[in-house]
Write a structure and sequence with these properties.
Layout (H helix, E strand, L loop, with lengths): L5 E3 L3 E3 L27 H22 L11 E2 L2 E2 L3 E2 L11 E3 L4 E3 L5 E5 L4 E4 L4 E3 L7 E6 L5 E2 L1 E4 L2 E4 L7 E6 L3 E3 L2 E3 L4 E5 L4 E5 L4 E3 L2 E3 L2 E5 L12 E5 L2 E2 L3 E3 L4 E5 L4 E5 L7 E3 L2 E5 L17 E3 L7 E3 L13 E4 L6 E4 L9 E3 L10 E5 L2 E4 L8 E7 L6 E3 L2 E4 L2 E8 L6 E8 L3 E8 L7 E8 L3 E8 L10 E7 L2 E6 L9 E8 L6 E4 L2 E6 L10 E5 L8 E4 L2 E3 L1 E3 L6 E4 L8 E4 L2 E2 L9 E5 L3 E5 L1 E2 L7 E5 L4 E4 L6 E8 L4 E6 L16 E8 L4 E6 L6 E8 L5 E2 L2 H7 L6 E7 L5 E8 L2 H4 L3 H14 L3 H10 L3 H9 L8 H10 L5 H9 L10 E13 L8 E16 L3 E16 ...
Parallel strand pairs: 3-6, 4-7, 5-8, 6-9, 7-10, 8-11, 9-13, 10-14, 11-15, 12-16, 13-17, 14-18, 15-19, 16-20, 17-21, 18-22, 19-23, 20-24, 21-25, 22-26, 23-27, 25-28, 26-29, 27-30, 28-31, 29-32, 30-33, 31-35, 32-36, 33-37, 34-38, 35-39, 36-40, 37-41, 38-42, 39-42, 40-43, 41-44, 42-45, 43-46, ...
Antiparallel strand pairs: 1-2, 66-69, 68-69, 70-71, 70-87, 71-72, 72-73, 73-74, 74-75, 75-77, 76-77, 77-80, 78-79, 79-83, 80-82, 81-82, 82-85, 83-84, 85-86, 86-87
Helix pairs in contact: 4-6
Length: about 1100
């Protein structure tokens, strides 16, 4: 008989008879994953007995069914809509299962579509499909792990599809309290798709053992069904909660993607006895359509390791620069580490051991990265970690061998103004973690470990961070760092007032490092904050060291180096002149062991530039500068406590003199630059003296101090080679006791320097301000080399006194040159006509040129503007109207200044025109507001030569407003002879203007000025005449016109500005600008085409001052009459 279909197992309909199958206890079919099939509680005993009786009854009935009802699913070439088990795949008997191209298993059950529950294999060939969509608990392929050990395997070149609705799905599941012996092999070209929360692409249940390799090729995509930023969705690509007794490999040209809030790539809370190898792309992300800013769902980690990886870890890529191997990639878009090795990954914490990777190229390491590991949070204000390795108080993480990377490890974080400061860390080695060494090798030319902070609020960027422990938990333990690639950290901010913007390329808070070997680049850079005193820009922070540290550098180091309180060694030696070694940054040796000493060696082709310091009491640094080595000590606030200080023949010692070491300034005195037991400068060595700050008056500096008789140097050679800066006079002397080298110097007067005009006037106050600004002061000392460069430099300290604002206001409002005055001249030709309402517009360009004076530079002002107006009236009452004028231009100072002011003027004008019996009378009144933005610049060039590269630049910025009122009256006589019109006229114009006070920003203590409000007035008389010809061309008039006259300003005078340096506002001064010409010749011409309803004209006006100043204006006028 056929028998009745009923729901058994996972609820799939089956037919009683040969080939029918029954529920398997737990971990297999019919039970949640992880349930122990070998354990039955007392409460379950009787229900199970009843089930067994029922099963026996059905089995007997099945024997009576005709054999033709048994299904042969050993080779599937068409669609099968029932679950398939290898145990009964061939007519009810065990068999291997092959799903060929065009074949498929398509079910919707809360269990497996295909189950390997016997000693058989299953193969999904290209073009074959296993589909189990839109069902809670759906499984694509289940491999049953038994106590006896099921022997089989699964290989796929086809598609496994668990899309649609539903949760708690597994694409491939190893289940059961036992062992499955065989490989899981997802070949290149295969696809595995799972959609649903709490789901995994491949899952080895807790308690299950896969004795074989797990190989993931093709494409694995696991996507959560819940969107948004709520609770973690629980999706993972590959999850090993049991044991993998073999290798876990992601093949090249393959991808594993997990998407959703908290999505995870590969998770191993169970042990992996073999290696974890990735040659493909593993990416976790919250969403594939993120919005800018914040509020996006974010993925968790690409790899989470919570148990042993016996065969080490590999993220593959090119092994050398000629390799064509694909670059493996691990990436995450959230605040969780991209690679997270943690003892707390699972519900039960474990000690973790990462064994040795058997790799042909890079042997003897536990972790090898030749690919890329990227942490780039989608949301602003999130912190970022690329690799984090964390133990805890009770459990350790141990690498049996070192950590090796020749690829990319990068962490980036960004803030916005509404968030908070964050942290970016490339590699974090946490408490109770032991790693023998970390190598960043440039074997492929791609090695980089980078960390970046950007945005408005700042934060901290760490390259390699070794975290501190507590009294009960030891910190991270890393003994050696070897770098031949790039280790770079960078922090930038748009707000330099933030409290924290720190960078550390190497940060050893635990103090376990004992060796650093750098032949590549170690770099720490950051935007300098307004309050930079507490800012940390550090290449290597070794201040917590528990032992002496040996730091060998044959490459490049940028940033400070802080040593601890033990005997430390820094050796900076290059390979050749083409491959030098450099350290650019401050070096603090702190103190040495009792009776010991720190050592600084600047070897052949090595250069150290920065402040070199040690503890003033317990410090003891032996210094040697070898042939072709250079030590530039840039100490500005503290000297170096040294033991033996030696400069070999051919070596160079550079010392920086700063006000803090000035013996004449008792408030600033901090001792000798070098306080040594003994010091020897060989006969052919060099001593260079630079300046770390400005010395405002006189200075005496103790450059080198030793015990009596312990100073040896070639004094005559040093004196001959020492060039006193141009701004000073001075000399070098050696004490009679042979224990001190002293520099004495005095600032020259302005007359000795050769300063004139405003440069001379501001010089005494500028030198006081420069003493408060070390960077600018040092640049002035170094790059002012003659009278011309001194005049240029100190002229730049003066405020804007060129009078450009006043000159422009006059030009815009004067009846002889302004746009409204031009409209009034045009109105006179219609004064006797009937009333017309007229709309008019002008576009005009201005160019003003003020010559330099003996006191200060002049200016050149150019810009464009427009005027829009309307007027009307009648012959008896006259014409009247109003206009709006806008002008935008730049007033640039002439050499030697390079400053500029941007001016925007907004003006409203009222005007009248009356004509009667040959006479006319015009009036005009204007009120205006000006918006001024100043940019005052000091540029200092190498050796004071403007043809050389720019050595230093500083800019002070300002914003200020200006109010202006103007009025005028003109009268004259109009003579007409046919088409010729002659108009002599007399006018009087007045102006009063106020320019607001302002305090500059961004220029620093030595450059910013506080400028008081400025007032100015003008009263001008003008006499001149115009000649116009009205040529009747039939349909229109062609009207050429010429004008000439003379204007005199009764209240004219040079601009005088009261100001002070912002760092010393009480010490104000007054400077005077160039004297503008009182008398000016005013001329111009125009050509208009006029009809009864409109007029189009071109005009040009100029003014030539008696002192050579020249102003000009061009206008395009369009008039429409209604």
């Amino acid at each position: 008989m056929l028998g009745a279909a009923r729901e058994i197992g996972y609820g799939a309909p089956t037919v009683a008879g040969a080939g029918a199958f029954w529920p398997v206890r737990s971990g297999g079919r019919g039970r949640p994953p992880g349930h122990d099939p070998n354990t039955v509680s007392q409460n379950d005993e009787r229900p199970d007995l009843n089930k067994h009786l029922l099963m026996m009854t059905v089995c007997v009935a099945a024997l009576l069914v005709t054999p033709v009802l048994a299904a042969d699913n050993s080779t599937i070439t068409t669609k099968v809509t029932d679950q398939v088990r290898t145990k009964s795949a061939k007519n009810g008997k065990p068999s291997n299962v092959t799903i060929k191209s065009g074949g498929s298993i398509e079910v919707k059950v809360g269990g497996p579509a295909l189950e390997i529950d016997s000693n058989n294999t299953a193969q999904l060939q290209s073009g074959g499909t296993i589909s189990n969509p839109s069902t809670d608990g759906a499984i694509g392929v289940q491999l049953d792990a038994t106590k006896a050990g099921t022997k089989g395997g699964f290989d796929s070149l086809g598609a496994i599809d668990l899309s649609g609705t539903g949760t708690t799905k597994s694409g491939i599941l190893v289940a059961g309290r036992g062992t499955f012996i065989g490989d899981i092999n997802l070949e290149t070209g295969s696809t595995l798709t799972v959609v649903g929360d709490s789901s995994a692409g491949v899952h080895i249940n807790a308690g299950s053992i896969l004795q074989g390799d797990l190989t993931a090729g093709g494409s694995i995509n696991v996507v959560s069904s819940t969107k948004g930023t709520g609770s973690t969705t629980g999706v993972s690509g590959i999850r090993i909660d049991g044991t993998l007794d073999g290798d876990l490999t992601v093949l090249a040209n393959s991808s594993l993607t997990a998407m959703g809030q908290g999505a995870q790539g590969i998770v191993t809370t169970g042990a992996v006895t073999g290696a974890l190898k990735n040659a493909g792309v593993i990416a976790v992300q919250g969403t594939n359509t993120p919005k800018s800013g914040t509020g996006n769902p974010e993925g968790a980690s690409a790899i989470i390791i919570g148990n042993n990886i016996g065969g080490g870890i590999l993220n593959d890529g090119p092994s050398d620069s000629s390799s064509s191997a694909a670059t493996a990639s691990l990436s995450s878009d959230g605040s969780s580490p991209t690679v997270f090795i943690t003892t707390a990954a699972g519900s039960v914490a474990h000690d973790i051991t990462i064994g040795t990777l058997h790799d042909k190229t890079n042997k003897g390491y536990s972790f090898v990265n030749r690919g890329s590991i990227i942490s780039l949070p989608t949301n602003e204000n999130d912190s970022s970690v690329a690799v984090s390795i964390q133990g805890n108080s009770n459990h350790t993480v141990t690498f049996t061998n070192g950590f090796f990377t020749s690829g990319t490890i990068s962490a980036s974080a960004k803030t916005n103004p509404t968030g908070s400061q964050n942290v970016a860390t490339a590699i974090a080695i946490g408490p109770n973690v032991t790693i023998p060494s970390l190598t960043n090798s440039n074997q492929s030319g791609l090695a980089s470990i980078t960390s970046t902070i950007s945005g408005a609020l700042g934060g901290t960027a760490n390259g390699i961070l070794i975290e501190a422990g507590t009294t009960s938990v030891p910190g991270g333990n890393l003994a050696t760092i070897i770098n031949s690639g790039t280790l770079a950290v960078q922090a930038s901010t748009t707000d330099t007032t933030v409290s924290t913007l720190d960078v550390y390329a190497i940060r050893d808070q635990a103090g376990t490092l004992t060796k650093i070997d750098n032949s590549g680049t170690i770099s720490a850079t950051a935007t300098t904050l307004d309050d930079a005193t507490a800012q940390k820009i550090v290449a290597a922070d070794l201040s917590s060291a528990l032992h002496g540290v040996k730091f060998a550098n044959s490459g490049t180091v940028v940033g400070a180096v802080f040593f601890g309180s033990h005997d430390d060694t820094l050796n900076v030696t290059g390979k050749s002149s083409d491959s030098p070694a450099t350290v650019t940054g401050d070096i603090d040796f702190a103190s040495a062991d009792k009776g010991g000493a720190d050592t600084l060696t600047v070897g052949h082709f090595g250069t150290v530039t920065g402040a070199v310091t040690s503890d003033a009491v317990t410090g003891h640094v032996n210094v040697r500068v070898q042939d072709d080595g250079t030590l530039n000590m840039m100490n500005s606030t503290a000297g170096l406590k040294a033991g033996a200080f030696n400069v070999d023949p051919g070596g160079t010692l550079g010392l920086s003199v700063a006000q803090a070491f000035n013996l004449d300034d008792k408030n600033a005195f901090v001792g000798a630059l070098i306080d040594a037991d003994s010091a020897t400068l060989a006969a052919t060595s060099k001593l260079n003296i630079a300046f770390g700050s400005f010395i405002p008056e006189t200075g005496h500096f103790l450059l080198i101090q030793t015990a009596p008789g312990q100073l040896s140097l070639p004094l005559a050679a040093i004196q001959n080679s020492f060039n006193v800066p141009f701004l000073y006079s001075g000399k070098l002397t050696e004490s009679k006791a042979k224990d001190a080298l002293t520099l004495s110097m005095a600032l020259k007067t302005k007359e000795q320097i050769g300063l004139t005009g405003n440069a001379a006037a501001i010089f005494p106050l500028a030198t006081v301000a420069l003493a408060k600004d070390d960077a600018l002061g040092a640049a002035v000392v170094a790059n002012v080399t003659d009278a011309a460069s001194a005049q240029s430099a100190f002229t730049a300290f003066a405020p804007d006194v060129n009078g450009a604002t006043r000159a422009l206001a006059i030009s815009l409002t004067d009846q002889a040159t302004g746009p409204v005055g031009a409209r009034q001249r045009a109105l006179r030709m219609y004064a006797n006509q009937d009333s017309d309402y007229t709309l008019w517009g002008q576009e005009f360009a201005q160019n003003l040129n003020q010559q330099n004076s003996s006191e200060s530079p002049g200016f050149r002002d150019s810009g464009f503007g427009f005027a829009l107006g309307a007027d009307g009236g009648n012959p008896s009452a006259g014409r009247y109207g109003g206009a709006f004028t806008f002008f935008s231009g730049d007033a640039s100072d002439k050499q030697p200044r390079t400053s500029k002011t941007t001016l925007d003027w907004y003006m409203l004008s009222g005007y009248t025109d009356w004509r009667g019996k040959g006479f006319f009378l015009d009036t005009q009144i204007t009120a205006g507001y000006g918006n001024l933005k100043g940019r005052r610049v000091i540029n200092l060039y190498d050796n004071g030569d403007p043809t050389q590269p720019l050595a230093f630049s500083r800019e002070a910025d300002s914003k200020r407003g200006s109010l202006m009122g103007a009025g005028g009256v003109s009268t004259g006589v109009i003579y007409a002879w046919g088409s010729t019109v002659l108009t002599p006229q007399l006018s009087l114009d007045g102006l009063t203007m106020r320019e607001d006070g302002y305090t500059e920003t961004n220029g620093g203590d030595g450059f910013d000025l506080k400028v008081n409000p400025y007032y100015t007035n003008s009263l001008r008389g003008y006499f001149g005449t115009s000649l116009r010809e009205d040529l009747n061309m039939g349909d229109f008039l062609l009207q050429p016109e010429a004008r000439i006259g003379y204007r005199y300003d009764f209240l004219n005078g040079a601009q005088k500005v009261q100001a002070a340096f912002a760092s010393d506002p009480a010490a104000d001064f007054q400077l005077t600008g160039p004297d503008p010409a009182r008398g000016n010749i005013v001329g111009g011409g125009s050509l208009a085409v006029t009809t009864g309803s409109w007029s189009l004209g071109l005009g040009y006006d100029f003014q030539r001052g008696t002192n050579g100043n020249f102003n000009q204006q061009g206008m395009l006028t369009l008039v429409g009459r209604i």
